[in-house]
Each structure stands twice: as C-alpha cells, then as structure tokens.
Write a structure and sequence with these properties.
The structure is a homodimer.
Chain A lengths: L30 H21 L15 H4 L24 H14 L7 E6 L9 E4 L11 H10 L9 E4 L24 E5 L11 E6 L7 E3 L4 E3 L9 H38 L4 E3 L5 E5 L4 H6 L3 E3 L2 E5 L6 H18 L11 H4 L7 H6 L1
Parallel strand pairs in A: 2-3, 3-4
Antiparallel strand pairs in A: 1-5, 4-5, 6-7, 8-9, 9-11, 10-11
Helix pairs in contact in A: 3-5, 5-7
Organism (chains A, B): Solanum verrucosum
Cofactor (chains A, B): pyridoxal 5'-phosphate
GO biological process, one term (chains A, B): carboxylic acid metabolic process
C-alpha cells in the first residue's frame, strides 16, 4: 500500500530527492497493508502535534478547539459554487453560513447588508490590485496609514470616483478593530474592498479568505446555466466547509474573545521585542503589530527548529493566539544559548540592521556608538 | 449566539430574502447559547444525511468512508503554499502526500516522474485554455475524440510545437483508463496537460483538482522569498488537507476498486437510460459516459427534490459511485408517477428532443412517427 523509504515522516524535507511516500496498489486480502496506512497517518499526526509548539514564525492560528465538533461535516462534499446570495439548485452547500459570516464582517467594517457583495475564497491575500493598502505587511507587519493617503489624494484633487482602494487586511483585519487608538478599517472611508484571511488570526484548518466589496462595483455578474446561478467569484467550485468553520469560530469567540486575543498578542509581542533589545539583540515591532522582527539567527537548524521566517539579515516571530509567555521564554532562552556559540570567538559580529530597523533598534556595535 | 428565523435549516433556500442564520455575540456566562450552536449543526447534519440519497443530478461522490479516520487532521492548519517539489520552510504542510498523489496520476497518464510538473488545486475545471478537450462534457457527458483531432492537425501540417492541447478530464479522468475499448488518456500522445477533479468520481469532502503538465512548459518559476519557495501555482495558499484525503482514497481503492466503480456506474447508467426509453421517455447516454440525459421534468419541486441539473428542455442524472439500482428504481418510479400527472389531460405534450438527442432517442409523437 505505502512504501516508506525513510524511517519517519519528516514533513519539512519534501524535495523530489527525499520523497518518503507513494501510493501503492492495495492488497484487499491483506489487512496489514491497511494497517500500514494508519501507521503512517498516526506518525504524521504525532509529528505535527509535537511540532505545534515550535510553530512561531508564520501567522497561522492552530489553537482552536472546535475541530472535533465539526468533524462530522467531512461526511459530505459541500460546494458553494457560484454566488453566495442566490438560491442554490442543490442541497450540499453552506451558503447560509457563508452569508452569516459575510454579514458579520460587513457589520464590523460598517457597510449595510444591501450595500455590499462578497464571498469566502480559498485564500486571503489579493495580488495585482491598481492601489492596495496593507494592514499588516507580510514581513515587518507594518500598517499603512490609510487616512493619510486619502487626505493626500483629496489634497491633490482626486475625487472618490478616480481611485480604487483595496485594503489587504489578511492578518491584522481582526486585530485593529479591537484595539483602542488604532485607526478604523471602515467602508465609511472611501475604500473599495477589504480582504482578510480566515486561517490566520481567527484560526481555520483550511486556507480561506473573506472578500467584501461595494455592491456597486459588481456590475457584470455572469450567469452560469449549469449551476443555475450568477457567478462573479473567480474560483468556480468553492469549499463549503470553511464558511461553517468560520461561522462556528466567530459565534463562539465573539468580539469579547477577539479583543482579548488581540490585546494579549500585542502585549506578548512587546514583551518579546523588549527582551530581545534588553539582551542586546536588534529587534523592531511596528505599532499595533504582532510581528517581531529581529536579527537573523546564524544557524539554519535553529531557524528550521522554530519555523522562523527570514528575509535578508532579518527573521521574524508572529505572536499569534496560543503563543504563550512560556513559549516566548523558551524560544528566547534557546536563542540566547545558541547565539553565544555563534558569536563566542568574535570572528563574526551581529549584522547592522539600522537601515531596516532604525538605528535606535539596532544593537550592532556601530549603531550603539552613534546612539 | 444564533438567530434562526425559520423553523428549520433549509440549505437550498439561501437567498438574501430567506436567510436563516447569523452570527450573534456569544454570552459566555450562558451555556444555552452554545447549545443553540450545536443544535443548529445537528439539524444541518441531519438534513444533509437525509438528502444524500436524493443527490443524483451532480457529479459528486459522497460515498466514501474515510472521514472518521482523517478527522484528527482538522487539528492542524496545513498549507501547501508554493511548489510541491521544493523544500518547505515550515512543518505544517502535506507536500509528501501531494507528490505521492501526483506521481500516481503521472504513472496513470504515462509520463515519467522527471518529465512532469503539477500540483493539487482547489478545483478541477480549467477555464480559458488556447485548445481544450473535454473528457466528459458538463451537461451531456460527451467525450471528445482526441485521436481524431490530433490526426486532423497532423494531416493539416501542424507539427507538435504549433499547438497545445489541454485535456479537461474533470469527471471522466478516473473512468476511461479502466474501461476496455475506451481511448487512452496518455502523455504518449502530443498533449500538453491534463486536469481532473478530486471531489467528483474519486470522492473528497472539499473541492480539489489534480493538474499535471509537461515540465518543459513550466519555464518561468517565480521565487517567493517569504516562503522560501519557487511558485508556479496560481493560488498561493493551498489546502494541505486535500492531498492527504486523495492519498488515502487512492491507497485504499487502488486500480481494482476504481475499475469496479467505473464498470458499475456505466452499467447503472445504461440501465437507467434503457428504463427511460422503454417507458417512452426521451433519453440519451454517450459512449463510456455515466451522465444520463433525459426529458426535463415539468415540476420544479420534483427537480429540486432529486437535485436534478437541467438545461433548456433537458435534465440529467450523473450515475456516480454509491447510486445503486435501488436509488435508480426509486427515482424512476417517482418520475413515472409524477409524469402521469403532468401529461394526464393531454393539454401538454412531452417536448421534442430530436435535435439534442438524435431522433432515435426522442420519444415525442413526431419522432416516433418518423422512426
């Protein structure tokens, strides 16, 4: 049935050279071949469970507890093909749940039910838009100042109908609304659309995104006769499970829990940034962000062990819900121990990150001299 | 927590006017609000279970039994972002399973491991390709004659490098290879790529597709620094659950079970077509197809009850795995009973479908006179 060519399932090493899995014709008379499948699955699940506490470099919230309750849905193949707001000719969809989720986001972003159109996608980030604003950039977690840009456009004489602003709120769209003093994401401002990821801050076992735009922009709906539905989505078949997962997650968390998660994550991110700076490690954290950027560790094994994301001389940790002070302390302790080895004989020196972090956040010897 | 504004969850009626679900702020002190969520889910699951036996009009195989075994995977957010064949910088992916599935299809379609590139998508059908061939068209299940087209291209002096053929095998890609006398889908013929749906004939609770092309066509891989991976996929984040579901399904079914499923489905489709024609109902069935097309029922309630798909004067049933003779007999009996009412006073007559079905398959009085 299965041919494991290595001793264990090692998720990270998935190159063509290191393949450890294949599909082999089953022998229905031989029970052991089916047991082998289960063994591989069990081993894979154990590896994932063990590795969960080291997953701190990417913005995925895996600390949800609803998977067992929703598991029976896997009996059905739910497909939300076509427009969420039109009647479906089949039973096996979850468009009621989808519209409930869309309505919740429409209310959060202050647009009337009759004024918006949207759908749940299989991803969050929108590429290739004419003018896009990032509410939490991928690497440094920076939040663009939307108000300033709108003011500038107005000052330069651009009326609303001469520009289109898309807000990519993939990660921070469920943090900023719950933080006092953070600028509001709202359709009361002259923006065209907002997208957000469902599998990031909120937490969902499948990639998904919520996309909402002003209804007035969705003029050319195309009728798909086969499914008897208009369709302005770009994806055709759409996963019917994700809307139910999002609906359940929002219904159990509510504003109160999301606000609590946001507050704790921002506090924990500040805690990590402060510990790094106090220990003489270059680090930065943008306002209202949960992405702590710091000096890139020298050892690739360390980077892999903590699932760190890196770019040039920088690495980052995204302090998501479920990443506790204990996890942060454990990471910090490990980093300090290893870092002492990397720089112990002073043959190598930590890099200067003044250009990336600002000199006040750079702890290299040059920057410290100038500060 | 939840505001049901109708007595029951009615999946089909998901128009803006009939919404029955919303997300309401939870009261964490009130246990009943959480019980309400569970009640809605239970009711929804019961409705789906009950409706399963009437799902005969769309090509979705829901007769799989592996959902309970794979449910623990929902604890993790698996994302196969980027190229399946390059190393992933994070633990939470299933690229080993993905490549195992791709290799299985590469072997089925006779292309060497080193000669192909592919990935698992969130859908099956490819739109807007330069020249596409359908192995199972959406409505009538027709299978294009690839050999004839290639011969014609050659006869007209077109060399292989002057055309690109994509084979859309969404539904029939796992039927034709197991049917003797059916023409082969193979990369030994001068085709460029093949796509197939995972949630159709094979059966998977989430929409997904397998896309395989010749490696030589994938020349411009774009490096995505954030995920440290090349990426020629068009979707960015990709569901990491579907490759494991497909891997498990293929590993337990194997060629033997797929061949058996194909044979039974084709036989059952012929059985339904014959019963319809014998009862004087216009019907047709393309060669090696499982899509039985017949005269469109007059009553919309009947169409909705059996989840039938319709187009102009036609409707169809797709005889998928799990649709038994008992289900077919039950549908046929119901159709005959209702049809007698529709045409009892001879005020209306069944439509002529000679143009769509050929006069030999049309049972209208005009066609019968000419036959």
């Amino acid at each position: 049935m299965i041919v494991p060519t290595k001793g264990e399932i090692d998720a990270p090493s998935s190159s063509r050279k290191n393949l450890c899995l294949s599909v082999v014709e089953p022998d229905i008379k031989d029970e052991t071949s089916f047991q082998e499948l289960d063994m591989i699955l069990t081993q894979y699940l154990e590896t994932l469970s063990e590795r969960k506490k080291y997953h701190i470099g990417y913005p995925t919230n895996m600390h949800y507890e609803y998977h067992a309750i929703l598991a029976p849905l896997l009996q059905f193949s739910l497909n939300n093909c076509g427009d969420p707001f039109t009647q479906s000719p089949v039973d096996f969809h979850s468009k009621d749940f989808e519209v409930a989720v869309l309505d919740w986001f429409a209310q959060l972003w202050e647009i009337d039910k009759d004024e918006y159109w949207g759908y749940i996608t299989s991803g969050g980030t929108v590429r290739a838009i004419s003018m896009a604003f990032w509410l939490g950039t991928t690497f440094k977690g920076a939040i663009d100042d939307l108000d300033f840009v709108i003011q500038t456009l107005e000052y330069c004489g651009y009326s609303n109908d001469r520009y289109y602003i898309h807000c990519d709120a993939a990660l921070c769209g469920l943090i900023l609304p719950f933080i006092r003093h953070a600028k509001k994401i709202t359709f009361k401002k002259p923006i065209g659309s907002i997208s957000i990821s469902g599998h990031k801050f909120l937490g969902c076992p499948m990639p998904c995104g919520i996309q909402i735009t002003r209804k007035s922009y969705v003029s050319s709906l195309s009728k798909i006769e086969y499914i008897n539905s208009t369709d302005a989505t770009i994806s055709g078949s759409r996963n019917g499970l994700t809307p139910i997962f999002l609906w359940y997650c929002l219904s159990t968390k509510g504003h109160a829990r999301l606000q609590q998660d946001s507050k704790i994550c921002i506090e924990n991110a500040r805690y990590l940034k402060d510990r790094l700076l106090e220990a003489g490690i270059s680090a930065m954290l943008n306002e209202f962000s949960i992405t702590v950027v710091f000096e890139r560790p020298c050892d690739h094994k360390f980077i892999r062990h903590w699932n760190l994301c890196y770019l040039r001389g920088m690495a980052h940790v995204v302090v998501m819900p479920g990443i506790t002070r204990e996890t942060i302390d454990s990471f910090f302790k490990d980093l300090m121990q290893e870092r002492n080895k990397w720089y112990q004989d002073a043959k190598a020196l930590p890099p200067c990150l003044a250009d990336d972090f600002g000199s006040q956040n750079c702890m290299c010897s040059d920057s410290k001299m100038h500060n």
